Amino acid sequence: MEFDDLYLQVQRPKYDCLLFDLDDTLYPLSSGLATSCRINIEDYMIEELGIEKSKIAELGNLLYKNYGTTMAGLRAIGYDFDYDEYHSFVHGRLPYENLKPDPVLRHLLLSLPYHKIIFTNADKVHAAKALSSLGLKDCFEGIICFETLNPTHKSTASDDEDDIEFVRLDHNSTTTPTSTTSPIFDIIGHFAKQNPDSVLPKTPIVCKPSTSAIERALKIANLNPQRTLFFDDSVRNIQAGKLVGLHTVLVGTSQRVKGADYALESIHNIREALPELWNVEKKSKVGYSAGNVAVETSVTA
Questions:
Q1: Is residue 154 part of a domain?
Q2: How many other CB atoms are there within 10 angstroms of residue 254's CB atom?
Q3: How many structural domains does the chain have?
Q4: Is the pLDDT of residue 195 over 80?
Q5: Structural element, H or E, at residue 262
Q6: Which Gene3D superfamilies match (predicted)?
């Protein structure tokens, strides 16, 4: 019996779950979706929010740099808008036809004997379209997306964990926009003046690379960060993941940076870079069970 217990302990895989970012991680930057997304965001800022075109480049850069996403930054500085309409405008015109089925990646993912979950800042419609275009939708047990971490339209920043809930495929999320009653915070002027007494406003949107967003995602999926391997193309997201205890893989470059345990030029290099992921016995053969990792149905969006 003692020998059997030792055998099970030795054979237990290092990870319970592989957590994957979606955009520019499961498909290359060269697809053009990122460029189209940026253009659509800029058009939204001009056409829907009435921001001067001359300010778009600098404003967009500051919002992305300080809030993780332009959307989160826009909400922080005082712009209010319908989340679904924003996502429809930004993602609805993306060239999904540029994403082709990827049978090589599909085979790699299906051969990995772990739970696999998508963790993206994008909305559920975009995630579903992208995964379907790549032929990878059934390779993952669930999706943690924008609606998962932002189930309701909030006007103010909140750390209330009771706001968190799962978003399911059959859940028709609705948002109730409120009018903008406060003045827009001049973030360009804030950095131009470099006033040490001026504080950036918080955003009500929860998203990567916020460590709180990653911690909430792990809580939702009931994942132990020390037994989770996180793949993302963003250095900031990888470094935030490392701060909360995740094992990390930077995708899109072979140059490993601080915070990244591994670096892959392409997601297709996963077997060459991490052969140990396949060097485990089937869980049923070593008597290992994932236990209470509730990802089979709970986190699908």
A1: yes
A2: 12
A3: 1
A4: no
A5: strand 262-264
A6: HAD superfamily/HAD-like (3.40.50.1000)
